[in-house]
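Lab notebook: predicted structure, single chain.

Context: the supervisor wants predicted structures on file for every construct in the current expression panel, including those that have not yet been purified. This is the next one on the list. No modifications to the sequence; it matches the entry in the shared construct table.
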Amino acid sequence: MSDQTFEFTKLPNLASERFGSAVLAANDEFFAPKEGLIKPNSPEWKDGLYTERGKWMDGWETRRRREPGYDWAIIRLGLPGRVHGVVIDTSFFTGNYPERASIDACAVAGVPSTDALTGNDVEWWPLLSPVDLRGNSTNVFVVEPTDRRVTHLRLNIFPDGGVARLRVHGIVEPDAHVFAGQREVDLAATEHGGFVVSCSDMHYGNPQNMLQPGRSTHMGDGWETKRRRGPGHDWAVVRLARRAKIECIELDFDHYKGNAPGRCMIEYCDAGTSSFDAERAVWETLVGESPVQPHSRHAFRDFSPASATHVRLNIYPDGGVARLRVLGRVDS
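Prediction complete. Output recorded below exactly as produced.
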């Protein structure tokens, strides 16, 4: 896997079921339902399990095509944005995977019907030209950079067969109205474009989990570092969705009972319109070092609103954080 490929797979999965993605239509799903394409878990194999249609497969699988053409499925992205790469996973499809695949994209306002998406009024453009696939493999493809925002994808497989999972990685671009009218918004949320650009450690849990919607579901649904045995502390840097004035910080340590940090501190920096340079960033204290309690939520508002593009969460000395919310209003 190249460095470029590795970088794009670190970006959010725009087709995540957790953010409201859905497989809206498919021309065929005889052996396995289209919804399997975007399941959050890794593909499974169940030896000897058959249905009335044939061998049970974890993913989307069409019947054997006996006439010209190809099969397709349409996916609504839960996180609209600019796609940087895709992963077409054919795990456990060995003699029944497609030979090739391609992906088309469109940008449609609102929540269009399936009839509208399959009609003639929607402009689809090629996102990924036809590529060869390997069976029982994770097929990873970089997408040529573009400024075009995508809301829906159409996965085409040639001529037929099965795909276990589709992952679509890219930069989140929410609707502009989210930030309009000086409304308070969570600037760190993944669904709004927030992203953890770096951290000191992620041994037990990915720091991007802190920016997920809702409360955490279990201890593995947050950011957790290894036990620190030397000096220092752990930290994570979050790029905010927009430059904005921060008015409130919320930290949730839900499920972290014997492994919560003892204290936390939050800093901010304002990179303006310049690209963020971690080596040159000037950090200012937003929330001074404060004790925190296990399995609890904390809110910090006792500070003057500060314009920022990034925040750095420091935890002492180590431990787990379920959720981080950075509430504020976008600078006009």
